[in-house]
Design brief:
The complex is a heterodimer of chains A (553) and B (322).
Chain A (H helix, E strand, L loop, with lengths): L5 H18 L5 H15 L5 H7 L12 E2 L1 H4 L1 E8 L2 H19 L3 H4 L2 E4 L5 E6 L5 H10 L15 E6 L2 E6 L1 H25 L6 E5 L3 E7 L3 H10 L4 E10 L10 E5 L7 E5 L4 E2 L3 E8 L5 E7 L1 H13 L5 E5 L2 E4 L11 E5 L4 H13 L6 E9 L5 H51 L2 E2 L1 H30 L4 H33 L3 H35 L7
Parallel strand pairs in A: 1-19
Antiparallel strand pairs in A: 2-8, 2-18, 3-4, 4-6, 5-6, 7-8, 9-11, 9-12, 9-15, 10-11, 13-14, 14-17, 15-16
Chain B lengths: L17 H21 L3 E2 L1 H4 L1 E8 L5 H9 L6 E7 L8 E8 L9 H14 L4 E8 L5 H25 L2 H24 L3 E2 L1 H31 L5 H33 L5 H29 L22
Parallel strand pairs in B: 1-6
Antiparallel strand pairs in B: 2-4, 2-5, 3-4
Helix pairs in contact in B: 1-6, 1-9, 3-4, 5-6, 6-7, 6-9, 7-8, 7-9, 8-9
Classes of the chains: A alpha+beta (553), B alpha+beta (322).
Amino acid sequence: MLQIDLWKRILILLTCLGGLWMAMPNLFYTSVEQHNDAAQAIELGADTPENQAQLAQWPEWMPSGLVNLGLDLRGGAHLLAEVKVRDVYEARMQAYWPEIRDALRPERATIGTVRLQPSPADEVHVRISQPEGMARALEVVRGLATPIPTLTGVGANDIEVRAEGDVIIVTLSDAEKLASDERTVQQSLEIIRRRIDEVGTREPTIQRQGTDRILIQVPGIGSAAELKEIIGTTAQLTFNPVVSRGSDGDAVPGIGNVILPSIDEPGAFYTLESAPVVTGEELVDAQPAFDQNGRPAVNFRFNTTGARKFGDYTAENIGSPFAIVLDNEVISAPTIQSHIPGGSGIITGQFTVEESTNLAVLLRAGALPAGLEFLEERTIGPELGQDSIDAGKIATIIAFVAVLVFMFLSYGLFGLFANVALIINIGLIFGLLSMIGGTLTLPGIAGIVLTVGMAVDANVLIFERIREELKTSKGPARAIELGYEKALSAILDANITTFITAVILFAMGSGPVRGFAITLGLGILTSVFTAIFVTRLLVVIWFERKRPKTIEV
Amino acid sequence: MRLRLVKQNTNFDFFSRWKLWLGISGLMMVIAFASFMIQGLNFGIDFRGGTTIRTESTQPVDIGVYRGAIDTLELGDISITEVFDPTFGPDQNVAMIRIQAQEGQEAVTPEVIRNVEAALNTVVSDIRFVSVESVGPKVSGELIQTAVIAVVLAIAAVLVYIWLRFEWQFAVGAVLALVHDVILTIGVFSELQIRFDLAIIAALLTIVGYSLNDTVVVFDRVRENLRKYKKKPLNEVLNISINETLSRTFMTSVTTLLALIALFVLGGDVIRGFVFAMIWGVIVGTYSSIFVASAVLLYLGVKRDWSKPDANAGNQYANIDA
């Protein structure tokens, strides 16, 4: 009959209390926030009396997780970053050298040997040994150019080729530079968004400003430093063949080579071939892991072309070292022990767990095509005026009260039970959001109002069912039991279906869609829990005490 | 005395004109889609980008006053934020105003910017305009693309789940109702030219959730009654099921609408479009569970004879009670 085991009762009660405990800091928002900021400042070394006083505002043993309030409600940090679009020119031109070399090779009879000359960053200088063949050489190199579609210059090519004596000079055309800048900024924008998405639901605003700047706004003032760490790293990963290892950073590397410092061994420098075997662009996955010695490392997997290149290279170069390079520093330079097919591997180095996790995030989200320079770092006020925030607050409270009153009017005492469960439900949502560091915006709050509607639905289903069962006069206990039993399949099917959509939206969506999916998913979990377990417990406790002969629902 | 929205033991006939209802729903979808194709949506600054103006004044920034001054120009979507920096002096109050690009234009014209500056000058006498720059949209192409893929996959997953738990006819009915709701909501936004911003995407997703919830509850009762009344014709079983769940349908919709209407009336201009989308979605979602999802079910028919095993319909999961 209507029985719930004692241990289940205790478990339900503990879950509710635990959730409400986690949600509680949100009631004391300002003091907890000041406490958290002060704690962070002290950790960074700013141990001032003011910080100590603010730290004391909230006891250490209490939970201090808060729901972030979004940019619209609270404001936050504001970063203006400039994309160093010129970085890309250099990489583009470097990539042209092997192509030029291969194209000129068959023409050796007319132009002689071909040599790469030291060249400025965004040009390639190639010397040919037989200047008489220059006309033919220029023709061949110009053949490499690809036309680019532009509005103005019909027939513009991506490179310009000219000769100076016996040197061919290849530069990017102005039209290509413009197009390249456009692509670079656009790509940077997407990658910044992906990186921020990878580390949680912060609901940032990421916008292009002017031609080559990106405006990033995130809620919460304290998050600026953390954010800069995530988006400030370029995370260009390459695997380069090692030419030699030395201790002189200023040595002449030889043409086509570069000298890069090692991260772990101070004073050690590696001479590497500057053209990489494989790059981070060909990674499909990266996860933090541990190596055989239990030290933090990063596991990675290449896509098929990357895997083939990596496999071929390792097969041909067993016994020689290759370097794993991140942002122009050598992480490690292991010797190839055997052919590595399959395209997966592990990056070891002297990482902390946090560093390996961050590196995995950066590798997954992709490298920024160019470096970023932060021009401005400021804080901003809420996007909504105080009047709108106040209106939103009042409306939310009234909406909530209206639902409570309506439930009571419709179901009497049972409505009260449902209302208690509803309040617990809201508490649990806030508790969970605080735990995962979710962000709440005004639309998010309206979304919670809808969750309230859905949570009411489960109770309504049960109560309506009990009413129906009462009509067939089976006695109150039996009616309540049957009501719960028969309503269960509808509640579960309806909520599982919605939960599936929430999970898929979270897994596949990005940015605000993801944030929304989290609120929706958590709302479903808590509302099913409160409707099935909490109201039921309340009903059962009441029934056990009163033992009513008839009930009215 | 209890509040009853629906009197007990109703016996409305929902399916005497089910073809008409399906026809009306189909027609509304066509109209909504046509409106979307012809007029398009009124995308806000989130989608369109525009211009940002930075202002500086010795008086404290009051966002309400700034907004009031600019609103008279009817420029559509604007957003105003105050900017703080430790290096700013005490009488250096900086604000950032974003104005959306107007219909058919890439950026905001200099003329519009002059008007904005003039309007602000009348309310804040010493305001200076430090810089004017273009800003891109908040919503990137990738975001829209992943959102669409996610929604399509979610609908596909729902189709499979309902198919496993019920029958394929139920799955088709539920998904058609879902598509109906989303198209009608987008249609209302294009027809009334309500501003379509980032929050509306969240509203659309919420509607998807609500509509599914409502449809599955009705279907659950249909499944139960199909077993209970084995001899009754399908339209009668559907009618009984909907009448039995009518009280619940109204309770839930009215409770939700009550909350939403409170937000709509009192919540201020900024969320009005968003809340409107949800109100519309709840109404359409409730309607579609009965007149689209169930009507489709009636049209497709359901396998009724459970005594003979049938290789084509149902499967081992269909009979499990949750």
